[in-house]
Amino acid sequence: MSHANDRLFDHKLAREWKLKKSRAEKDKVMDLKEAIATFVEDGDSIIETGFAYVRGPLAAYWEIGRQKKKNLVGIFTPGGLNSVWHENGGMEGAHVAYVGVEMRGLISPFRRGVENGTLKIYSEWSHGGLALALRAAEQGLNFVACKSMLGTDIIKSNPYIKVVDDPWTGEPVCLVPAIYPDLAIFHVHHADKFGNSRIWGVSVNDTAIAIAARKVVVTCERIVGSEDIRSNPHQVIIPHYCVDAVCEVPYGAWPGDMPGLYYFDRRLQERVVREFWKTPEGTKEWIEKYIYGTENHYEMIAMAAEEENMHVLDYVKRLEQLACEAAYYNLGYWGVGGERDWRYEEVAKKAI
Q1: What is the DSSP string of 138-163?
Q2: Does 338 score more than 70 pLDDT?
Q3: For residue range 88-139, what is the model confidence (pLDDT) as tens digits?
Q4: Which residue from 341, 337, 339 is spatially nearest to 55, judged by alpha carbons?
Q5: In this structure, what are the phi and psi dihedrals at residue 190, rounded to the nearest 5 degrees?
Q6: 4-248 CATH pick, 3.90.550.10, 3.20.20.80, 3.40.1080.10, 3.10.410.10
């Protein structure tokens, strides 16, 4: 089997794969464990979707760890959550535009892996450059030309982009190749049994990723009827013919944010990022307890609720309601995954 990097920029192979993929509307509903076992293969490249902790398919990522998938290649734009697996052989390297969890802290397992050479960085990108690579794949182009990344050291660390002279102006331009990840997992608000998927709020790069990826798994807060989906076609971000599996996973983005439904569980996030993941020993302890030590996502939630001595899901739903109300009073509209005037310190000050 070829290495993930060999497949990643092979547009001929990607087109052959796409032509073989069925466009038929068929029932694709399955359990999350089955979907991960079936569609995540050792050595796959996996691109993270959503916006890190915003609509990230975290239940699916935890299941990847639970099933001890090996030698994955990450594509982070942004992301990096799957890099936590590399210290137990789960991830061998990555293509990177951004890794981190913003004000919550750094993803220490990623930094340790890069510093000690156990996690390979195959290429670095600007956000715009990697987005354009996905857009090229979405549009069926072999590459696109752009100005992004010119004049930066990214050119030196990325073997996939080329700098040439524009034949019309003579000015230098970057040629960015189309990128085709082996796997993408999305967490969406609603999907029907065929895979047509509805997203509230910003879609980030997900519209392009859904077309670019060879295999697509959708996890959703709720499976709805196709009549419901057809009644609001403008909200369908991912079409059924891209999707291989549909899994109903309520709270599948927890402890991240699901716009309009529940907010970040920042107290838990910061405890994990700033305490558990700070050292290799702490990361191993976290994986053993919360991943290997639980049967599924809901056992993780129950464990967190017991440790926090609170109703975790009620807490994050209430925070989302407050955030949306704040947007209404300060901005004049109800916020759904957009600008929500919620001060970070008001949520996080008890976490440290």
Answers
A1: HTT-SEEEESTTTTSTHHHH-TT-EE
A2: no
A3: 899 999 999 999 887 777 899 999 999 999 999 999 999 999 999 999 999 9
A4: 337
A5: -140, 150
A6: 3.40.1080.10
